[in-house]
Amino acid sequence: MIEQLLADPRRIVQARSQLHLGQQVHYLDWGDGKWRKVRVVSMKNDRVTVLDEASAKQFSLPYAAIMTTDPSATPKGEQGPAPTQPKPSPPPEVSRRENVHVGQRVSFVDQNLQRHVGQVTRINQRTATVHADGRAWRIAFALLQPVINVPV
């Protein structure tokens, strides 16, 4: 039953909409029961690859294991007004033609919710031509996000 809930496409799409490359998130380490800070490196169909900056290791987690807010920010049992959840920071967006240049590394999500990373090869009037995965894509400027280099 739990596996079916974790694999539910609606839950995955909801989780993916709150994440972007380079975002810092938290997950619960089952080994010691502590929350760990990690950075999103890549997103696949049902799993997200993260980089643990403390140990410089990359590993894959299900989307359900990721929290975008700091779980230790509000102590349990705290009384008073209901705490407001901070909104996750939106991904940096290019969104305008002036902010795109040839040679820039960008990412975008296609119609199948697959994230692609590529390089801008041409600037058109309304779109940018991006070479990614051995293919040329014409992507609207509003859908492009600059790639944040994550040290490995």
What this model shows, in words?
This protein is mostly beta strands and 152 residues long. The chain has 2 domains: 2-67, SH3 type barrels; 97-146, Roll (SH3 type barrels), CATH 2.30.30.140. Helix content is 9%, strand content 38%. The chain has 2 helices and 10 strands. A 5-stranded antiparallel β-sheet has the order 4-3-2-1-5, with no helix packed on it. The chain has a 5-stranded antiparallel β-sheet with strand order 9-8-7-6-10, with no helix packed on it. The radius of gyration is 18 Å and the shape is elongated. The mean pLDDT is 78.
Shape: elongated
Fraction in beta strands: 35-45%
Integer average pLDDT: 78
What's the SSE pattern? HHEEEEEEEEEE
What would the CATH topology of the largest domain be? SH3 type barrels
Biggest sheet statistics:
5 strands, antiparallel
Radius of gyration: 18 Å
**How many individual helices?**
2
CA(first)-CA(last) distance: 36 Å
The residue fraction in helices comes out at under 10%
Number of domain modules: 2
CATH class type of the largest domain? Mainly Beta
> What's the architecture of the largest domain in CATH terms?
Roll
- Tally of DSSP β-strands: 10
Ranges where pLDDT stays below 50 over 5 or more residues in a row are: none
Alpha-beta content class: mainly beta
- Kindly report the spatial arrangement of strands forming the biggest sheet: 4-3-2-1-5
